[in-house]
Every structure is written in C-alpha cells, then in structure tokens.
Amino acid sequence: MKKFEEKEQLIVVSTTFMILSARYYATGEFNPGEKGTRIAFSWAKIIGMYGFWFGSFYAQYNVYSYLISSIAKFLLYPFSS
C-alpha cells in the first residue's frame, strides 16, 4: 500500500510541475499575479558556457584515456615479449 502512495505522490508532483511549467511559458509567471524577475543571458555567454563544457569534456576524456591506457600498459608489461 505504501508503494502505491509513493507513486501517487510522484504523479501529483510531476503533474504540478507540468502545470506550473505550462503556466510559466504561457504567461511568464508560475502563480497568477506573482511578481518575478526575468533572468536573461546574452548569446555570447550561452555559447561560451557550451564551449567551456564541451572543451572541459574533451580535456577530461583525453586525460582519463591517457591515464587508463598508461595503467593498463604498466600492468600488462610483464606479459609482453
């Protein structure tokens, strides 16, 4: 019974989120009459953030690939001829 209550609670939360999202995109506010502050980013900042994350991913991929291959080569060295 508890499992069904948890699932029902999850459905209620996700439905509430969808309603708030739909209202926000339609009117620009989560709750009717609620004042808020619009946060806007320039395209340069958005593109810069994506560039940073892709560059960071690329650098980490290369570093960890090198480390893993170096460790594997070191461990397998005694078995090479």
From TrEMBL:
Keyword list, A-Z: Membrane, Transmembrane, Transmembrane helix
Transmembrane segments: 9-26, 38-56
Name used for this protein in its record: DUF418 domain-containing protein
Source species: Caenorhabditis tropicalis
